[in-house]
Amino acid sequence: MRLTRTFRFFAALCAAAAALPCTAATSCDFSAVDQRMQQLLARNGVSDGGLLIGSAQGVLFKKYYGSYDDSTVIPLASASKLLAGLRVLQADDAGLADLDAPVSTLLPAPTFQWQPGNAGITLRQMFSHTAGYGDDRNNPLMYDQHITLEQSVQDIAKDYLGLAPQNYAPAGSQFAYGGISMQVGGEVVQWRSGADWQLGWQQAIGAPLCASSIDWQGLVTDKTQPTANYPIAGGAEAALEDYARVLAMIAADGVGNGIRILSPAAIQTLIHNQTGDAILGYAPPAADGSTQYGIGVWLEPSGVSIDAPTISDIGLFGFAPWVDFSTHTFGIAMLYQPNPAFGVDPSANSHLAIVDMIAALRTLPGGGASCARSETYDRIFRAAMESTAPAPMCR
Q1: How far apart are CA 134 and CA 187, in angstroms?
Q2: Most buried by CB count within 10 Å: which residue of 15, 155, 316, 322?
Q3: What is the DSSP string of 16-30?
Q4: What letter does residue 148 receive in the DSSP assignment?
């Protein structure tokens, strides 16, 4: 009886999701992306790295270079933004924080002393770089490891000593890439959920997806002294496999490891442009002047259509994840180059590399989605054809 039920469930799942191929898997040649990854490492002057290509169901190709392996955890820099955006959307799903509510109602006085210019900014603006802040990579309010996230945002709210100026005001008028606005958004989620940002993320997303290495201590030099002022937009760290599990959940329309993490509506918000009519105020060089941005993710020009976009979130040190919704596949170019040689931009080099990789993957059967998997993430797919009890959640 159990076998019959699970078989019918699997068949129904396949019929409902064309992006999750149920035909016999094909052996595919990933040498083109492997070669491009090697070129990327050489261009950035590093020998250590990792490359993972996957689908909603699991790993299609994985290779490490140099000394990296499954246990390697590296700082993500701006590739933290995607991870943070998921938690924001989760809070919206739960009714804890409306994306379009003024921040002054989400983080009220007297704890937070908002000024006239920033009192009305919204979570949507905070996580789409249209809140009036930007070009603030070195702002000390994000990186003071001796204060808390709440204290950081209290100082941002009252524009403490002019350290968090809204140089791109009024809110909604300009797209200006940065981190201060996401720092505020992180505190919104922390305050409204009643859960510490890092612990809340780990419990609500990391643990269900078996992504235990992800935290917001990536920029802390002394790991025995963790910070509670989490740099929301750039402070996370992760192992390759764990970040990949997050991308697999996104590619599966919000379901990972048999558990719904985000609603389909939240995924649609994530992957569609949220910047409205904002004009370009500031964008990093790798963005080439683009203002196409979802919630914590860039919308790549190589996306097939509005309804089948490609999203990315490339970090300053070179870590470069993407999800291609035309094929429901994803990839990560993993590297860490914090001290590049003069004239070398790790993030720009990684962006050029993943554009080439995405194009190469689209030449494979099903855009890569029909290729044989080397590892299956989701316990639904691991157990679907078995008559025994499902596999443990994490293994």
Answers
A1: 18
A2: 322
A3: H-TTS--SPPB----
A4: B
With beta carbons less than 8 A apart as the criterion, state whether 327 and 19 touch: yes
Q: Which residues contact 388 (CB under 8 A, 6 or more apart)?
A: none
Residue type, 33: V
pLDDT of 380 reads: 63
Here the tokens at position 239 are 């192992």
What DSSP state is assigned to residue 227? Answer: -
What single-letter amino acid sits at 109?
Answer: A
Helix 31-44, helix 346-361: angle, nearest 10 = 170
| CA dist., res. 88 & res. 335, Å (int) | 26
3-state secondary structure of 72: coil
Q: Is residue 67 within 8 Å of 48, Cβ to Cβ?
A: yes
Q: How far apart are CA 340 and CA 46, in angstroms?
A: 9
Sign of CA pseudo-dihedral 269, 273, 279, 284: positive
Q: How far apart are CA 212 and CA 202, in angstroms?
A: 7
Beta strands at 49-55 and 58-65: parallel, antiparallel or unpaired: antiparallel
Chunked into runs of 10 residues, the chain (395 residues) has average pLDDT values of 37 41 75 98 98 95 98 98 98 97 98 97 98 96 97 97 95 98 98 98 96 98 95 98 97 94 98 98 92 98 95 98 97 97 96 98 95 83 46 60
Contact present, 296 and 84 (Cβ < 8 Å)? yes
Q: Are 356 and 310 in contact (CB under 8 A)?
A: no
- Encode burial over 201-213: b for 16+ CB neighbours within 10 A, e otherwise: bbebbbebbbbeb
- The residue behind tokens 């990093």 is 284
SS3 104: helix
Instruction: Report the amino acid identity of residue 394.
Output: C
d(CA 221, CA 127): 27
Residue 133, CB-side half-sphere exposure with 13 Å CA sphere: 30
Q: What are phi and psi of 249, to 5 degrees?
A: -65, -40
Whether domain 2-383 has CATH 3.40.710.10: yes
Count the Cβ atoms, other than its own, within 10 Å of residue 175: 25
Whole-angstrom Cα Rg for the chain: 21
Instruction: Round to whole Å and give the CA distance between 220 and 263.
Output: 33
From CA 21, how far away is CA 371, in angstroms rounded? 9
